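Q: Could you write out the predicted structure for this multi-component system? I'm mainly interested in how the pieces pack against one another.
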Amino acid sequence: MSTYAIIMAGGIGSRFWPKSRLDHPKQFLRVFGDSTLIQNTVARLQGLIPPERCYVVTHERYVERTKAQLPAVPAENILAEPISRNTAPCIAYAAVRLLARDPDATMVVLPADHVITDVRKFHTVLRTAIETAQEPGALVTIGITPTYPATGYGYIQFEGSLDQLDEQPRALRVRTFAEKPDTETAERFIDSGDFLWNSGIFVWRADAIRDQMATHLPKVFQAFEPVAEAVGTEREREVVAAAFQNSPRISIDYGVMERAGKVYVVPASFGWSDVGDWRAVYELSEKDEHGNALQGNVIVHDASRCLVQSDDRLVVLIGLHDTVVIDTEDAVLVCHRESAQQVKNVVDYLYAHQLTRYI
Amino acid sequence: MSTYAIIMAGGIGSRFWPKSRLDHPKQFLRVFGDSTLIQNTVARLQGLIPPERCYVVTHERYVERTKAQLPAVPAENILAEPISRNTAPCIAYAAVRLLARDPDATMVVLPADHVITDVRKFHTVLRTAIETAQEPGALVTIGITPTYPATGYGYIQFEGSLDQLDEQPRALRVRTFAEKPDTETAERFIDSGDFLWNSGIFVWRADAIRDQMATHLPKVFQAFEPVAEAVGTEREREVVAAAFQNSPRISIDYGVMERAGKVYVVPASFGWSDVGDWRAVYELSEKDEHGNALQGNVIVHDASRCLVQSDDRLVVLIGLHDTVVIDTEDAVLVCHRESAQQVKNVVDYLYAHQLTRYI
């Protein structure tokens, strides 16, 4: 049995505007220091899954950029989505490709643009998940021990209790999956003690997810069935395009996880963040004694708790606190840290007003 | 008797960084709309003093730029200072040049970079000042009726009372000139009712200021005596350079006005501002319904009472209030409106760290 990573890199990340653009989405950004988020995602797996067993599923337009950023990952492991159809078709494609190479494969599915600070714990948790996934038909997710009543994450309710969590990770049966809650519901989830954040990290055998899809998502399964015979042939690209075209748009959470029988969650606390906006970048950044996280050509005077990033031009900040300034070649964002979620609205505005040069 | 304007354009205006630079000082900026401050200063005199009787005294390095911005002002009226020596030498030079042209000349001396919103009142006040200046030996200043206890201006104390000010301007004798006060003193000045802001606008006959300089600033007077014979000759530039070199560095306020006998002030309230910093620009700008003054390529979302100017790039502001953003080709300033005075400190920092490309 070999373990493979399936890195899902389909996102646009419009909340990272003006750094993230349509041709330069979040996973390719150097948000922290010298490496990009997708480079960190591959690097973080070393010791558990080598680059030659890492796969990336991304939109066609990002294939070349992905290859350039991940030279250690074999070019044939970069799988192109001709159109975005959410996670289920993406995982179906990866499973078919993997089964053609290794019928005994176990898949670790994970987003390309998250941050995990405790890599040792991350590996320990994944090992437990991989082991659990060897039970026939088992689907395993990683659930993050919540630290506050977040409304930006989905939740997973488990059976049993969280005692002795720090000692050794273990898999618990999943009771329910819950969508992103409102504040009141999130607080109830936290108080109950049996809810975890849905990290979007899944572990299963490739044959298990294929079988579960055949049962719970037959349309997706059938759409990708012809791909199995086309893998490695001249026809692959064309057959894959048809498969995505014929597949419904659905998430793996909703399509399979919420319906399948043997679903487990491994609770974890390895310093995880989905780095959803500039506020999260601030929180994850190293700060100086005034709480400022400054990167590039920046001068501050009487400023504190600010995130400032400049590619090239001089940015001067005076008398401001809790402020985010992101300077790029053709646009600059100046934003209160607590308003970081609203960056998405501005990108919507740019679309609505056809200001495409800035998208 | 003819009246001439002497526009003093020697300043650097480092508080308008990043728009003001060493080779592009405040008077040449389009701070409000399409015209620069110096263009507005000349335009504001129309109806009272035509461009051919306007003179500008500026640093050598700004002569060409001044000519380009003021095509209606004759090129020979742009007087070059080889070195900056404060206002007294500058006025001495202008007086000598003017007397060579018109021994009966009256001078209206005024800064190039101020704003006056009520031009009709401004002309009425100047007419009173010009009339007052015909009394032999009289020196006349314009004093602004203060609206708050400013600590950034000098003050002029007058004799008499301010009754019926709005009806018709009149000249009052000056009791004292006061330097920029601390807050407590400024409040006392305002409460007393007999203090005005020193506008830096002066009116006198050229022969009167020459005579007063001979008495109170003999070193300045003597330095510029040789210039009289050199006006219009090949030697002028060389002789003027020597005059500035030999002249002490002193202001006309301190050197003459505080010492002379017949000093008058005409109180005025014509919407004057010295536009000392970006906060003043905000206050003088037209605002939208959220109190924002936006110029250029700017998008705001949940922002109020902000001043944002962009030359070219897109500036996006989210969730901020009372914030100044000034975007230029190579630098961007992001500043709380109440911290606008501290921009000067940043320019000092740039000097101290030899970041000359930004100065």
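A: Regarding packing and overall arrangement: Residues 87-101 of chain A form the longest helix (15 residues).
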